[in-house]
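Design job #97: recover the sequence.
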C-alpha cells in the first residue's frame, strides 16, 4: 500500500497561485493531511528546477517509473503530465497555481482519491527551506484512513529526502529543458 500511497501522493497534487485573489491550498477538512519540511543546502533555482522538471522525476525518485508532460514549456496553471509511480499507471496531475521559485500547487483524482499538493520554497542563508503539504479525500481514504495517513507521511518524507539528495549533489546535472524557472 505504500507504493499505492506514494503514487497517489505524487500524482494527485493540486495547484497554487500567483495572481489570483487567494492561493489554492489543501483541503483542511480531508481525512488525510500531511505536512513536512526540509532544509536543502543548494541554490533555490536548482531546487526549483529539479522539483518542477516533472519529466526528470524518474532520474531521482526511485518510485517514479515514467512522467511525460502533456503541455509544452514551463509549468503554469493548466499544465499537466501523465506519470506512473509505485505500480500506479497513467496518473494525470494538473497545475492549478504557480509562483515561480516560490510555490506550486498541483493535483487531481487518481484511483478514487483526490489530492491537493502544495510546495513552498523559501530562500535561507544556507539554502532553501522546502515546505510541502498534501490532503487526500475520497472513498479509499475514508475506508482506510490510518493506513493511508502513514503511507502519505512516509511518501512525502521520502520525496523530500530524495529532492535534498539530488539538489545537494556536487556534480548535479541540469534538468532537461521544460522545467519551470524561478
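Job complete. Output follows.
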Amino acid at each position: 500500500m505504500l507504493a499505492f500511497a506514494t503514487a497517489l501522493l505524487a500524482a494527485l497534487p493540486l495547484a497554487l497561485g500567483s495572481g489570483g485573489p487567494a492561493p489554492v491550498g489543501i483541503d483542511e477538512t480531508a481525512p488525510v493531511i500531511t505536512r513536512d519540511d526540509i532544509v536543502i543546502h543548494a541554490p533555490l533555482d536548482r531546487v526549483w528546477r529539479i522539483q518542477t522538471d516533472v519529466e526528470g522525476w524518474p532520474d531521482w525518485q526511485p518510485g517514479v517509473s515514467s512522467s511525460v508532460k502533456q503541455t509544452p514549456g514551463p509549468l503554469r496553471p493548466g499544465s499537466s503530465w501523465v506519470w506512473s509511480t509505485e505500480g500506479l499507471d497513467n496518473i494525470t496531475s494538473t497545475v492549478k497555481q504557480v509562483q515561480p521559485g516560490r510555490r506550486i500547487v498541483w493535483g487531481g483524482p487518481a484511483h478514487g482519491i483526490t489530492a491537493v499538493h502544495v510546495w513552498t520554497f523559501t530562500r535561507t542563508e544556507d539554502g532553501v527551506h522546502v515546505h510541502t503539504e498534501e490532503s487526500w479525500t475520497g472513498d479509499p481514504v475514508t475506508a482506510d484512513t490510518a493506513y493511508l495517513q502513514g503511507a502519505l507521511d512516509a511518501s512525502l518524507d521520502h520525496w523530500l529526502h530524495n529532492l535534498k539528495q539530488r539538489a545537494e549533489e556536487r556534480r548535479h546535472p541540469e534538468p532537461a529543458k521544460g522545467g519551470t524557472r524561478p
